[in-house]
């Protein structure tokens, strides 16, 4: 090699940085597509749950959709070599407890709440989740709420409360209470997740949570209303159950993890928070024929603004990795 050849080769740009930038750009685009898909799927959930609550037997809907999701996620866990966690003396008790709070309780409160209250009011009530997150973080993690968190919490409550006396939006109150406490069970499951993540992965925990929930919900269904199984002969019933279990629960979880594995959890959450309720409003109007009142629209905007104020002002330095993983195990509204 001549001196001239050596100088020429040294002068050539190194491809590694460019390749790295290209890979990061591709990962960002994939993550963004997953985040958008998650937002759309999460927005569909209260609408399809409302439809199932009105047109299907509630326990058949719960048990059927969770069984579909559990079967599909069992295959995913088996392929990943994680199926053994289901029968591990170390993990099974905590995974069962997580499933009872994060899947069984929330499935029952959602279906029986949305059986009496429309999807639009339900979406507003579900904005209470950051309140429970703040409360449990204070109790179990010893975190002191900042002034910004307290202000954001007050704004969320104002947004929800402003709709409370607007006609029959939250009537009956018993059904509204079921939806209002649903996020509390999600947040309790996050606290339990702190004891298993890591070493268990998000996918493993989600699969175990769903599989155990399917077993319990099927048992409740068989004990209380087994005769409703004849409804499975209706193709429309099967379509709703498979759409909820396969599309909302499974595909929604996979796109969520596809997003947060490529994007930051805070950034992804900030994207989904305003998108989910607004799209839910749109889907409820188009698919269910529901029409939000001006008060409901204003209340939603105020509540979402409070949640955004809370998320966008979060101090990443205060968040432990384990706590962030526990939060990530719960995709929006599932």
Quick rundown:
The chain has 334 residues and is mostly helical.
Mean pLDDT equals 78
- The gyration radius over C-alpha positions equals 22 Å
Strand residue content: under 5%
How many strands appear in the DSSP assignment? 0
Q: Biggest β-sheet, characterized? A: none
Measured between the Cα atoms of the first and last residue, the distance is: 63 Å
Tally of individual helices: 13
The dominant shape is globular
Kindly describe this structure:
It is a single chain. The termini are far apart. The protein has helices at residues 3-11, 15-55, 58-79, 92-114, 119-125, 129-140, 147-164, 173-193, 202-225, 235-260, 265-288, 294-312, 321-328. The chain is mainly α and 334 residues long. The chain has one domain (41-328). It has 13 helices and no strands.
Helices and strands in order, then pairings?
Elements: H1 3-11, H2 15-55, H3 58-79, H4 92-114, H5 119-125, H6 129-140, H7 147-164, H8 173-193, H9 202-225, H10 235-260, H11 265-288, H12 294-312, H13 321-328
Descriptive key words:
single chain; 334 residues; mainly alpha; 13 helices; 76% helix; 0% strand; globular
């Amino acid at each position: 090699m001549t001196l001239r050849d050596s100088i020429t080769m040294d002068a050539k740009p190194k491809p590694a940085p460019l390749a790295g930038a290209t890979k990061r750009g591709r990962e960002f685009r994939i993550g963004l597509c997953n985040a958008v898909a998650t937002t759309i799927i999460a927005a569909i959930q209260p609408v399809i749950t409302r439809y199932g609550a009105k047109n299907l037997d509630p326990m058949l809907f719960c048990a059927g959709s969770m069984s579909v999701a559990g079967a599909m996620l069992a295959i995913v866990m088996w392929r990943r070599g994680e199926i053994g966690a289901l029968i591990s003396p170390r993990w099974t008790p905590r995974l069962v407890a997580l499933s009872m709070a994060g899947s069984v309780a929330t499935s029952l409160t959602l279906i029986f709440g949305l059986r009496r209250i429309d999807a639009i009011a339900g979406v507003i009530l579900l904005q209470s989740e950051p309140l429970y997150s703040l409360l449990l973080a204070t109790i179990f993690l010893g975190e002191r709420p900042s002034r910004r968190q307290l202000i954001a919490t007050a704004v969320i409550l104002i947004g929800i409360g402003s709709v409370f006396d607007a006609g029959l939006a939250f009537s009956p109150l018993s059904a509204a209470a079921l939806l209002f406490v649903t996020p509390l069970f999600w947040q309790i499951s996050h606290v339990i997740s702190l004891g298993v993540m890591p070493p268990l992965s998000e996918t493993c925990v989600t699969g175990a949570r769903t599989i155990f929930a399917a077993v319990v919900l099927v048992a409740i269904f068989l004990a209380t209303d087994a005769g409703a199984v004849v409804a499975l002969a209706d193709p429309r019933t099967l379509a709703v159950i498979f759409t909820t279990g396969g599309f909302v629960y499974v595909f929604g979880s996979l796109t969520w993890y596809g997003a947060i594995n490529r994007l930051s959890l805070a950034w992804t959450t900030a994207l989904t928070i305003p998108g989910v309720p607004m799209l839910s409003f749109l889907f409820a109007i188009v698919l269910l024929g529901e029409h939000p009142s001006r008060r409901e629209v204003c209340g939603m905007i105020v509540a979402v603004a409070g949640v955004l104020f809370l998320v966008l002002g979060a101090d990443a330095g205060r968040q432990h990795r384990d706590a962030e993983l526990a939060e990530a195990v719960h995709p929006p509204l599932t």
